[in-house]
TrEMBL record:
Swiss-Prot/TrEMBL keywords: Hydrolase, Protease
Coiled coil region boundaries: none
The name this protein goes by in its record: Ubiquitin-like protease family profile domain-containing protein
InterPro entries documented for this protein: Papain-like_cys_pep_sf, Peptidase_C48_C
Entry's Gene Ontology molecular function annotations: cysteine-type peptidase activity
Lineage, opening ranks: Eukaryota, Viridiplantae, Streptophyta, Embryophyta, Tracheophyta
């Protein structure tokens, strides 16, 4: 943890650990940070995105209850030295039919978080439409819920909370 925060490599290792060792429900899927980045960049037809949004088998997203995305927001994008950033989670909550944004530091009251999350969600809607256009399950009209999480810890704990949300989120009960 350089400077008291999780590096991207540590977050990826944490996600891999959760996927392999933590007993998460089979109706939940955690997308890799690579998929999140491709969607963020608008690369909806990339091979990895097509594979993640495949319309067959157990990984078909329309059969899931929760599709989780690891979000990384650069807080100083124009500073070449200080690459300070913030982790949070976006979830397609197919059970309740909404987008859940889980961030222990902000509850949607922060304009930079809102604009960051909403830009990703717009790209996610386009990705979904491109890959599931004929499906009965559509996410275009899902509202965004900024989930009120417990505000605790320091500003450097966001990576830990991200991993906790990915492992434990059940759509309504906050992880403890």
């Amino acid at each position: 943890m350089p400077n008291g925060r999780l590096s991207r490599n540590v977050v990826v290792a944490g996600i891999d650990f959760i996927k392999e060792k933590v007993d998460i429900h089979c109706d939940n899927i955690i997308m890799s940070p690579t998929i999140t980045r491709r969607i963020w960049e608008g690369d909806f037809s990339h091979r990895e995105v097509r594979k993640a949004f495949a319309q067959h088998g157990d990984s078909k997203l329309t059969l899931k209850k929760f599709v989780m995305f690891t979000m990384y927001q650069e807080l100083t994008p124009d500073d070449p030295v200080d690459k300070c950033g913030h982790y949070y989670t976006v979830c397609i909550n197919l059970r309740i039919q909404r987008f859940d944004v889980l961030d222990y530091l902000h509850w949607g009251d922060d304009e930079t978080l809102r604009s960051h999350a909403e830009l990703f969600i717009e790209n996610l809607k386009q990705t979904w439409l491109r890959h599931y256009e004929g499906s009965k399950v559509q996410i275009n009209d899902f509202p965004i819920e900024y989930v009120k999480t417990a505000k605790k810890g320091t500003t450097r704990d966001c990576g830990i909370y991200l991993l906790e949300y990915l492992a434990k989120w059940e759509g309504r009960k906050l992880p403890t």
